[in-house]
Structures are given as structure tokens and as C-alpha cells.
Amino acid sequence: MSFGDPNNPYGQQPQGQPQGQPGYGYPQQAPQGVPQQGYGYPQASPVQGGGYGGYPGGPTEMPGGVKASRVLLYVIAGLQVIGAIFIMLGAAAVSAAKNDATLQDDVQFQQLADYSGGVLWGMAFFALAWGVFAIVLAAKFGKGGNGLRITTIVFGAITAILGIYPFVVVGLVHTVLAVLVVVFVAKSDGEAWFNRPQR
């Protein structure tokens, strides 16, 4: 008995082939009870967690850039204290020169000394206050939120500007450190750290 052309998919099935198995050219059917999947890759379950780089609740350890910003804030605070000490020494020197007997009769120097002494003491106080503010910001990095991040960015920007304008040579170090603080805190890992859910 002839079954026709063996390459013809519409021909009759050979007798030796089991009934449950399709022959050449017949569409493949999944057995009963087995779910069918579409073509391509198998379906994956959706990713769980937030958008913090794969962390479900945000990063659990402070990123390196944020740690570096914290250290730089402490360095800025130390430089502020050293600067305040030098300014206080300058104010004390102006006060001592003001009481010098040879300069008592010089009215212009006395007026300048009065003005300079007050300005120098005010600058020393501002430098100390700015250093304390840097320490407070750095101390809160472990538990601070996005408000602390924004405050630190503003602090860094103001510090960089103050480093450029009044104290060009001495303030260059402040400017560089402040710019680095702003860059490290503003990066995406810094944002993820400060926006993480607080425990």
C-alpha cells in the first residue's frame, strides 16, 4: 500500500507512527493539562522593591560619596576654626595697637582700629558659627532625609561663593572642598541615601 509522497504534509500518516504523536509538518500541540506559553522567553515575575538601585527599601549602608562629603564637612569645620583663631589674633593685635601710646594721637588710626576691631570680631564669630553648622550637618548624615541633603547643597554653594569672593587665595581650599561636597551629595547614590525610608 502506498502512502503517497513522504514529503507531502497532507498525505496520510504512516501506520507505524503512534496516534498521539503528530507527524512531520503537523502543528505541535501541548498535551492536555499543560499550560501553553507564547513564543520567546518565559515570563518572569515582576521585580519587587523600590527604585533605589535594586534595594527594596533604599541603601542600607552609606555610599562612599556621601561618606566623603561628611569627612569634607568636618575638614571645612576644622579650617573654619583655624581661620577664626587667626582672625581673633588679628583683632587682638588691632586692639593692642589701638592702646599704643605713640598711636593715641592719630585720630584716623583710632577710627580705623575701632572699625577694624569690630569687623574682625564679627568675622571670627561668623567663621566659628559656620564651622559649627558644618559639624551639625555632617553629624546628621546617618539619619537625615532629603531636607538635610538640600541644606548641605545650599551650604556647599554658599561656602564655595564665599571662598571665591572675599578670600581668594585662602578661600580656594574652601571652594574646592565645598564643590566636592555638593557634587557627592547631589549624585544619584547620595539622593538614594537621603531619600531612603527612615527606620
TrEMBL record:
Residues 9-40 have a biased composition (Low complexity). Residues 1-40 are annotated as: Disordered. The chain crosses the membrane at residues 71-97, 117-141, 153-186. Keywords: Membrane, Transmembrane, Transmembrane helix. This is Integral membrane protein. It comes from Kitasatospora albolonga.
